[in-house]
Amino acid sequence: MARLRRIAHTHRLALMKTATYYVMHVTVAMAVAYAVTGSWLAALTLSLLEPTVQAVAYFFHERAWARVAQRPGADAPPPAALTTTLATAQP
């Protein structure tokens, strides 16, 4: 329990931002779901379900990118053609 408190204290700002983002996300999702369905019950269900599924999907997304970063050559610079394309595409 002490470890959890230490982590919470160390990352207090990030946790506060996460909590406020979650509330904002649920509120927007509920408003959109209500506009589409016309049902507050469906809106509440969808607005709570979607962020939960999204969090699980994000976990697996991060795991996939961690594997990409561990590949040999992951730190290699991009090919010259890509670098040139990106440099000329910027306004």
Overview of this protein structure:
Helices cover 84% and strands 0% of the residues. The protein is mainly alpha-helical and 91 residues long. The N and C termini lie far apart (52 Å). 1% of the residues are buried.
Which key features would you list for this structure?
4 helices; 91 residues; mainly alpha
Briefly say what this structure is:
By secondary structure, this protein is mostly helical.
Could you say which overall geometry the principal axes of the C-alpha atoms support? extended
Helix fraction by DSSP (H/I, runs of at least 4): over 70%
Mean pLDDT, to the nearest integer, reads: 83
Largest sheet: none
Annotation field: number of helices: 4
Category from helices, strands and their pairing: mainly alpha
Q: State the oligomer.
A: single chain
Name the helix and strand elements from N-terminus to C-terminus, one letter apiece: HHHH
Residues in β-strands, percent: under 5%
